[in-house]
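Table S2 (text version). Query chain:
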Amino acid sequence: MPAQPSPWQAEARFMVANADELLELLEVAGVANRAHPPQLSTVVSADLLFEDGDITGETWLTRSDLALLGAHAAPEMGERINAWDAFSRVFEDAGHATRLIVWFIR
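Corresponding structure-token output:
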């Protein structure tokens, strides 16, 4: 554990209508099944603990990973990825690193 508390915080929650489509897209882009970083915010950790169902397919994405996804995405999913990228860009333009934490609940 780092000496300082983690600077990462959950800032937004994004839900997708077709989780199977997103999971397939993550696999095609080569960014699926990357274990979550050990320093998650308290909010994200609490969400993980209190969700109903089994949590599977966890991974995390950077803005460059979003570009990989966009290259393979159907138009509707591509629009969602562009929105995620815009959300991340706002923080990164202000000097804050971002990452998108992903998990699936079955």
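Notes on Table S2: The chain has a mean pLDDT of 82. Residues 75-93 form the longest helix (19 residues).
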